[in-house]
Known about the structure:
The protein is α+β, with helices and mostly antiparallel strands. It contains six helices and 17 strands. The radius of gyration is 20 Å and the shape is elongated.
Amino acid sequence: MERLQKVIANSGVTSRRKAEELILAGKVKVDGKVVLELGTKVSEKAKIEIDNVLITREDKVYYLLNKPRGVVTTTKDEHQRKTVVDLIEGEDKRIYPVGRLDYDTTGIILLTNDGELANLLMHPKNEIEKVYIAKIEGIISPVDLMKLKNGVIIDGVKTRKAKVKLKRNDKINNSSIVELTIHEGKNHQVKKMFEAIGYNVLKLKRERIAFLDLTGLKSGKYRKLNPKEVKRLYSLTNNN
Ligand code: URA
């Protein structure tokens, strides 16, 4: 038996918080009856409807993909470009990416049909660490590295404190390699952070999400997470 809002969130249709709103609004039926009480326990076999539409409950799957350049992080692209979901072969469950990487960004991305975990990992309150390696145009100064660390203004809001490590200053090619660790996930966050202090990002790769990295995975390759890893991801979140 599981709590109704958790089952709804797990089905991937919406977040747990939204599921609670739907329940309170009288839009959720269990075995044909409207349920208004949050936390109602439901069995594996219970028929759950939202606005009279049956939700499907399926086994959860979790993939870790090394996204190549030139692939979009959506489930479908209106311009028929390849998506991260297309790269996962033989999976008929409705999986989707957790968060986003730009078309030209490479590296680690998770895909799942577990809506609850996806929402938890993306919620800023859970402060899931993401590590990026950025190649930028120009030689970055210590002062600018400090600015990135303390937070810069993007879209009118200051970014939270970040970890910043200079990996290389390449004077010959006029570029620098910087490792940036952030907990937020605003759209184009890393590129905008560098832009805010006057640098253009030439290449961007995400190397790590929490304890997960790309060990053993070439570009375009993926693997399933094991149950221990899934449990560990849940344990990093404020899951209540
Ligand atoms: N920040 C960016 O600017 N792009 C990405 O793809 C990910 C983080």
